[in-house]
């Protein structure tokens, strides 16, 4: 996989961010992972990026200040950010939550797995779908 790919990753759990970053780096060693602790910081980080081509946003649902649904809605209402692919990751496998995320504009809803190998597989799937 080539370089110059960016994953904006938002999760309020530091351990989850670390595992997700490592999974994305394992799936594509050249990836640039930009971490955020909440949706508001995520939006700021995206807006401060020089180049949004080859960018995907991966975010948790439950975060302080601005949760995942609010962050997706903010992105999709901003013409500069509306076309950036977004993936919602959640520990919940509630179909209603998935429906809300997709209705808000998420391109995909994925339930967080409980092992690192599955996280790497998810990272590879995200790269294959959004960076093909």
UniProtKB/TrEMBL annotation:
One example of a Gene Ontology biological process annotation: phosphorelay signal transduction system
UniProt keyword Phosphoprotein present: yes
Domain Response regulatory: start-end pairs: 6-127
Keyword Phosphoprotein tagged: yes
Coiled-coil positions: none
Signal sequence annotation: none
InterPro entries documented for this protein: CheY-like_superfamily (IPR011006), Sig_transdc_resp-reg_receiver (IPR001789), TCS_response_regulator (IPR052893)
A UniProt-annotated Pfam family: Response_reg
Keywords carried by this UniProt record: Phosphoprotein
In-chain residues carrying the UniProt-annotated modification 4-aspartylphosphate: 60
PANTHER family in the cross-refs: RESPONSE REGULATOR RCP1 (PTHR44520:SF2), RESPONSE REGULATOR RCP1-RELATED (PTHR44520)
Protein name: Response regulator receiver domain-containing protein
